[in-house]
Specification:
about 140 residues, mainly alpha
């Protein structure tokens, strides 16, 4: 596989792409590298960094959106949108922790940007979630050192 042949840089790119809307699994590259005697902790670092930057890319893509579009295209009243946004902001900024989840993680990242969540809280919680994800994956592969 192309990404595996690039080593740590390939893992970074694979993790970045996996965190965007590109349907890709960085876990395959991650596992292949650690089974090929690459340092598991450097793999965790590269994968976390790439996945985090990909998630932040989704956040900024969402940030380009406009709440008026929801009102216009989905015929939801402005008051309902504001109430949802206020409820979401109570804990929603920290909800970005779960952006590592397959399938819905990209939606969480884009929604966090779209709803103008606090960037720093989103960035920190997303980084922590993605780090935990790869630590668990390393452990599941039998390389918890």
């Amino acid at each position: 596989m192309f990404f595996i042949s690039l080593g740590y840089f390939g893992l970074f790119i694979a993790a970045f792409l996996a965190a965007t809307i590109v349907p890709f699994s960085s876990e395959i590259v991650f596992s292949a590298l650690i089974f090929s005697d690459f340092n598991p902790w450097i793999c965790v670092f590269c994968a976390t960094l790439g996945n985090w930057l990909g998630g932040l890319t989704c956040f900024w893509i969402g940030h380009l959106g406009n709440l008026d579009w929801i009102e216009k295209w989905f015929k939801i009243s402005h008051e309902k949108i504001i109430r949802f946004e206020q409820k979401f902001h109570k804990y929603g900024d920290w909800f970005a922790f779960f952006s590592f989840l397959p399938g819905i993680g990209d939606i969480i990242a884009v929604a966090s940007g779209f709803l103008r969540c606090n960037f720093w809280i989103v960035a920190f919680s997303m980084l922590f979630g993605k780090f935990v994800r790869y630590i668990i994956w390393m452990y599941l592969n039998g390389f918890f050192l």
